[in-house]
């Protein structure tokens, strides 16, 4: 073990890269399943899902793992890239790399950096708002009663609270989602953060919606390239390469690299172009 | 000085065992006080360095390449012989011994060859233990091939690169000792002289080829394993860097040089394509199992082919001369190497050559493709009269047997050997001659040993296929490590040898003077210019067929060329850095002397035997005619200032176990 | 053929070096690439210039000494060949050909196109062997049958000629294909398994010390390798190293 140094050796760095990468692939699959509810489900279910994802302890643990993986994957990747640069101090005057390797494989660091930037903006746009924005809207619903439209907050116990109860001061909202009886100072119900609304608004914004959609699609294209190499590469790094399984892994990896980002990308396109507000 | 071969007494089968039981040994503690220099890191040098270090000696190993793994042993293709009798086909130590002596046309030393056959089995055990991936059968046991000149299957192999795999085995054993600090490796170093102190070899002068520095290295014994001298012909299957400098320097310091005229010309090489040619590529002998060798019957057709007006496939069967089948009906295309080579040369000299230089014959696989194809069609129940189908099926089978060789040919010649016959021509391949050594592998300089191709001892006048690898490893792993102990036993209390001794100073000065002279010569021609000229003289007059007139001319021409070389050679650059032209100059200077001795030896040997063919001495059918009465001896030459003054010493070859007979392949 | 050669010239390890243009004429398609350089050198010598230094020896594709990076590829545009087996018919009349040394921090330039690959040797000193004495008194070679498939795979790995094309080609200058070929050769054989764990740990450790980059599985090495050494070997080494590390 003395010489193996599971943290320091070149191979160990690669193992971590592969393991975190594969874990992030799992995360992508989960995240995608959730996001697809934007198309195939309604706002309530989506918001319920969002609530579950932000509160369930097991999911929380997974989410911390995800953050760590992203950080580790990025930092490890940057370290590897610097080492690799240093391993060839003088570049070739002419290098016909296209003759022997795919473009994506040679540009993982660039692709990864773009993805990292995307993740950060993505988190600022959604995750940070969801977690910290004091003005994050709660989900409401309009119900027409005797020709009169009335807005209600939806609550986690499947109840309704008229919006005007809060507006008139009978109830107040604390800790962003909790409804308190103003007089009794008792928590009565809890609402849903309306992530659905925020998401739809983000991509349908009159000024920036189109750009946001296009940038999102572009980021997914970058992710596709990253996965195109990364998925199978992770297995190679972990030592899985044999004539029987490798074609299956490679085929699956390419399918994953195409389908997952494509489905991700369809969602903002759907929202921007097809979803009625 | 008389030659004492120090062959032990007793029955041949017991000589080596008895000898080992009675020689002096050095105890392990004392081995730590003894230094040994090994020059060359091929199969012989590499295995010797590893074994000596393992025994406890301090070894310094030298190679001119950038790594020991690049020594030219690596290029051997076919295999390595060993008397394992795994096939149960009647092989034995005696048979291997007998085949080797007979294959050498009865010009090898019996006792050495028998010892070689005895240790051959150990080599295979050793290599397998080291992780050499020799070819195996489906049952997991080792596979064998059969090779020319034998009636049994005793050749072990690793696809077409047995040499590389065995060398990597020796190299790995060396690596282990380098890692332990017992072998100090000097890569990119070239030995330029031997240092003799009080009559014993005590060190070398070497040039660091990167920095140009001239270094002194001392030791209690010096082992030369620097390979053969085939590059005296300029064009050969040897590597570009293969050279005779180490062997020649010890010759000039007192080591006799034996049988320089015994050279093996291999019949199946890719022909020279033009004046730019730098080296020749061997195609495995195995191709002659299925290829038929021919030239056009008429001179007009040959001319038309040379001028590109006709193609080989335009000629009908009746217009082709399958000259080996015609001359040697019994053995046909499978006659031994020397016979096949001479026959090809005879046809080309007569004007029937088929490439633009006129020096090539065809090796045609059309008949084999048809034969295999018909058989395959029959087995598969297909129409054996469908020519296209038969050709396709036959080509597949030929591909499975020789695919890699066909591919190699295609890359070099740019012709598809499946549809057009290959062109081949003989090329210099191996040198059986070399420094004279006694039974201990020691030269006539005490403390200076010579192993592998660089000595003369085991192959006589012709080497059998798959025997070179066997000899190199036998010498290095299993013979020298014993015999060198016997020599070193008295030196155990000597302590390290100073490199400040006047002998070192003097030798170093000699080397520096020569280098200085080359650098400041400012001639008009490059080293290659002279090397090519030497090669042409050697090939034309000291090549496959020799005669007294040509040899006499060659001796004069080489001497004149040598003089011109020293006057007119141009070596650019400086001595104090990496300078490949300077390296070549020091090597070619030695070839220019060796070539003359070579011709002188060929001229004195008034007989034909093995690789040495004198046109004056042939049977009525044009076969080699040996003269056992007058020439059953080793010709060992003593250096006396210049090659023409070399003095001949004869070591009689006494055959107690094998009867001398004429070889016939009709 | 008429060509323009753009050759890296560098006097010694300390010199900065630069690409120099050499027009050359009269090149025949039958020439090997190195013979073309021989012609150039002969011309340079006759003009009184210093010839271009380049490594070469066997000129039949097995010693692994030749090492040029030609038009952006290790051993040039052909596949399954070393530079000495590359022929001029792969090029066209009027072509411009870049000729550079194999570049890596672990392969410092000695002169012109000659580089120092002793880092490869040192990796093998660290563990590229089976610790068996060369006494010849080992067990009989046929005592342990070896599965033919394993023996063949071991041979395929052992076919590596140590030329360094993998390092030169790899965008990271990684030596993984080379080291894994050596590790695999022994790991696949029963006699090599005894010290397999130490071997892989020691060889990788030395590889890291030499300053090679890290493998990112681009696969370029396998494509440019003149002996077709498979990426399977790298996976095998990854596996061996992981297991050896976990064993502690």
From TrEMBL, chain A:
Signal peptide location: none
Cellular component GO terms, alphabetical: membrane
UniProt-listed CDD domains: SQR_TypeB_2_TM
InterPro entries the record matches: Cytochrome_b-558 (IPR011138), SQR/QFR_C/D (IPR034804)
Entry keyword set: Membrane, Transmembrane, Transmembrane helix
Residue intervals passing through the bilayer: 65-87, 108-128, 210-235, 256-275
Top-rank lineage group of the source organism: Bacteria
The protein's name in its UniProt record: Succinate dehydrogenase
Organism: Flavobacterium hydrocarbonoxydans
UniProtKB/TrEMBL annotation, chain B:
Keywords for this protein: Cell membrane, Electron transport, FAD, Flavoprotein, Membrane, Oxidoreductase, Transport
Gene name tied to this protein: sdhA
Annotated Pfam families: FAD_binding_2, Succ_DH_flav_C
Occurrences of domain Fumarate reductase/succinate dehydrogenase flavoprotein-like C-terminal (ranges): 531-665
Membrane topology: Peripheral membrane protein
EC number: 1.3.5.1
Keyword Phosphoprotein: no
Listed name of the protein: succinate dehydrogenase
NCBIfam families documented for this protein: PRK07573.1, sdhA_Bsu
TrEMBL record, chain C:
Entries under InterPro entries matching the protein: 2Fe-2S_ferredoxin-like_sf (IPR036010), 2Fe2S_fd_BS (IPR006058), 4Fe4S_Fe-S-bd (IPR017896), Beta-grasp_dom_sf (IPR012675), Helical_ferredxn (IPR009051), SDH/FRD_Iron-Sulfur (IPR050573), Succ_DH/fum_Rdtase_N (IPR025192)
Highest taxon in the source lineage: Bacteria
GO molecular-function terms, A-Z: 2 iron, 2 sulfur cluster binding; electron transfer activity
Family: Belongs to the succinate dehydrogenase/fumarate reductase iron-sulfur protein family.
Cofactor names: [3Fe-4S] cluster; [2Fe-2S] cluster
Domain 4Fe-4S ferredoxin-type: 151-181
Protein name: Succinate dehydrogenase/fumarate reductase iron-sulfur subunit
GO biological process, alphabetically ordered: aerobic respiration; respiratory electron transport chain
Pfam families for this protein: Fer2_3 (PF13085), Fer4_8 (PF13183)
Record-linked PROSITE patterns: 2FE2S_FER_1 (PS00197), 4FE4S_FER_2 (PS51379)
């Amino acid at each position: 073990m003395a010489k193996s140094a599971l943290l320091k050796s070149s191979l160990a760095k690669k193992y971590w890269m592969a393991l975190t990468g594969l874990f992030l692939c799992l995360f992508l699959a989960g995240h995608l399943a959730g996001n697809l509810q934007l198309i195939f489900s309604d706002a309530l279910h989506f918001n319920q899902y969002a609530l579950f994802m932000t509160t369930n302890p097991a999911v929380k643990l997974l989410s911390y793992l995800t953050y760590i993986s992203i950080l580790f994957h990025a930092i490890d990747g940057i370290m590897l890239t610097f080492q690799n640069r240093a391993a060839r101090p003088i570049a070739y005057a002419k290098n016909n790399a296209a003759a022997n390797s795919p473009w994506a494989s040679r540009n993982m660091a660039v692709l990864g950096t773009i993805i990292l930037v995307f993740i950060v903006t993505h988190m600022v746009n959604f995750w940070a708002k969801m977690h910290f924005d004091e003005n994050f809207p709660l989900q409401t619903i309009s119900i027409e009663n005797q020709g009169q439209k009335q807005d209600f907050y939806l609550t986690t116990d499947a109840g309704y609270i008229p919006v005007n109860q809060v507006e008139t001061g009978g109830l107040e909202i604390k800790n962003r989602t909790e409804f308190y009886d103003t007089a009794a100072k008792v928590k009565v119900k809890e609402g849903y953060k309306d992530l659905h609304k925020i998401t739809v608004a983000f991509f349908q914004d009159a000024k920036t919606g189109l750009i946001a959609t296009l940038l999102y699609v572009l980021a997914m294209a970058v992710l596709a390239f990253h996965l195109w190499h990364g998925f199978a590469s992770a297995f190679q790094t972990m030592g899985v390469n044999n004539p029987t399984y490798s074609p299956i892994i490679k085929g699956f990896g390419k399918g994953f690299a195409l389908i997952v980002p494509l489905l991700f990308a369809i969602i903002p396109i759907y929202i921007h172009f097809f979803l009625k507000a | 000085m008389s030659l004492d071969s120090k062959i032990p007494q007793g029955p041949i089968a017991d000589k080596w065992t008895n000898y080992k039981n009675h020689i002096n040994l050095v105890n392990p503690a004392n081995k730590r006080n003894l230094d040994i220099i090994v020059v060359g890191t091929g199969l012989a040098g590499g295995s010797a360095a590893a074994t000596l270090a393992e025994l406890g000696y301090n070894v310094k190993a030298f190679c001119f390449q950038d790594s020991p793994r690049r020594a030219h042993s690596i290029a051997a293709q076919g295999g390595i012989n060993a008397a394992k009798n795994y096939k149960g086909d009647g092989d034995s130590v005696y048979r291997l011994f007998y085949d080797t002596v007979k294959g050498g046309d009865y010009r090898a030393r019996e006792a050495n060859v028998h010892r070689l056959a005895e240790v051959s089995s150990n080599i295979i055990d050793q290599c397998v233990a080291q992780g050499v991936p020799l070819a195996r059968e489906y049952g997991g046991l080792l596979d064998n091939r059969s090779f020319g000149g034998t009636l049994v299957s005793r050749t072990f192999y690793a696809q077409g690169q047995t040499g590389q795999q065995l060398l990597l085995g020796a190299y790995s054993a060396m690596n282990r000792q380098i890692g332990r600090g017992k072998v100090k490796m000097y890569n990119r170093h070239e030995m330029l002289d031997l240092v003799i102190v009080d009559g014993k070899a005590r060190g070398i002068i070497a040039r660091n080829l990167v920095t140009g520095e001239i270094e002194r290295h001392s030791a209690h014994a010096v082992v030369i394993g620097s390979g053969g001298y085939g590059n005296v012909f300029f064009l050969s299957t040897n590597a570009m860097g293969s050279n005779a400098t180490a062997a020649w320097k010890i010759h000039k310091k007192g080591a006799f040089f034996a049988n320089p005229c015994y050279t093996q010309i291999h019949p199946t090489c890719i022909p020279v394509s033009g004046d730019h040619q730098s080296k020749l590529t061997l195609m495995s002998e195995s191709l002659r199992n299925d290829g038929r060798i021919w030239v056009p019957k008429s001179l007009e057709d040959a001319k038309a082919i040379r001028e590109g007006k006709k193609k080989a496939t335009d000629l009908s069967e009746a217009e082709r001369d399958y000259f080996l089948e015609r001359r040697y009906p019994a053995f046909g295309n499978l006659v031994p190497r020397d016979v096949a080579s001479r026959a090809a040369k005879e046809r080309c000299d007569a004007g029937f050559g088929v490439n633009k230089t006129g020096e090539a014959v065809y090796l045609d696989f059309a008949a084999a493709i048809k034969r295999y194809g018909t058989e395959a069609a029959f087995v598969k129940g297909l129409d054996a009269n469908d020519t296209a189908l038969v050709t396709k099926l036959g080509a597949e089978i030929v591909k499975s047997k020789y695919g890699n060789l066909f591919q190699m040919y295609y890359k070099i010649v740019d012709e598809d050997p499946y549809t057009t016959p290959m062109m081949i021509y003989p090329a210099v391949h191996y040198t059986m001659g070399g420094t004279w050594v006694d039974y201990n592998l020691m030269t006539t300089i005490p403390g200076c040993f010579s192993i592998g191709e660089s000595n003369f001892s085991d192959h006589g006048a012709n080497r059998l296929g798959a025997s070179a690898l066997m000899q190199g490893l036998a010498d290095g792993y299993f013979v020298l490590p014993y015999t060198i102990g016997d020599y070193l036993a008295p030196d155990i209390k000597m302590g390290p040898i100073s490199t400040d001794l006047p002998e070192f100073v003097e030798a170093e000065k000699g080397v520096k003077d020569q280098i200085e002279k080359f650098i400041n010569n400012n001639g008009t021609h490059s080293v290659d210019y002279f090397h090519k000229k030497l090669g042409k003289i050697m090939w034309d007059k000291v090549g496959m067929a020799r005669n007294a007139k040509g040899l006499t001319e060659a001796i004069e021409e080489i001497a004149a060329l040598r003089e011109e070389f020293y006057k007119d050679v141009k070596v650019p650059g400086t001595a104090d850095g990496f300078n490949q032209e300077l390296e070549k100059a020091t090597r070619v200077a030695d070839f220019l002397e060796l070539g003359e001795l070579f011709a002188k030896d060929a001229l004195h040997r008034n007989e034909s035997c093995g690789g040495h063919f004198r046109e004056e001495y042939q049977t009525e059918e044009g076969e080699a005619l040996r003269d056992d009465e007058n020439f059953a001896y080793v010709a060992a030459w003593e250096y006396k200032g210049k090659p023409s003054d070399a003095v001949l010493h004869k070591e009689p070859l006494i055959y107690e176990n094998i009867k001398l007979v004429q070889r016939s392949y009709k | 053929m008429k060509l323009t050669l753009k050759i890296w010239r560098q006097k010694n390890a300390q010199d900065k070096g630069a690409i120099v243009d050499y027009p050359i004429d009269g090149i025949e398609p039958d020439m090997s690439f190195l013979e073309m350089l021989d012609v150039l050198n002969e011309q340079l010598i006759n003009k009184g210039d210093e010839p271009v230094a380049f490594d070469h020896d066997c000129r039949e594709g097995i010693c692994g000494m030749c090492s040029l990076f030609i038009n952006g590829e290790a051993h040039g545009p052909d596949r399954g060949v070393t530079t000495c087996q590359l022929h001029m018919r792969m090029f066209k009349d009027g072509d411009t050909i870049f000729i550079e040394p194999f570049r890596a921090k672990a392969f410092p330039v000695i002169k012109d196109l000659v580089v120092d690959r002793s880092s490869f040797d040192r990796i093998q000193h660290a563990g590229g062997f089976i610790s068996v004495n060369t006494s010849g008194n080992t067990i009989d070679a046929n005592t342990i049958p070896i599965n033919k498939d394993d023996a063949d795979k071991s041979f395929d790995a052992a076919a590596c000629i140590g030329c360094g094309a993998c390092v030169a080609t790899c965008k990271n200058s990684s030596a993984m294909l080379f080291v894994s070929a050596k590790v695999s050769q022994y790991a696949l054989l029963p006699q090599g398994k005894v010290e397999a764990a130490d071997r892989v740990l020691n060889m990788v450790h030395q590889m890291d010390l030499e300053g090679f980059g890290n493998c990112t599985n681009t696969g370029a090495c396998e494509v440019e390798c003149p002996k077709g050494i498979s990426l399977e070997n790298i996976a095998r080494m990854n596996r061996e190293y992981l297991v050896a590390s976990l064993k502690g």
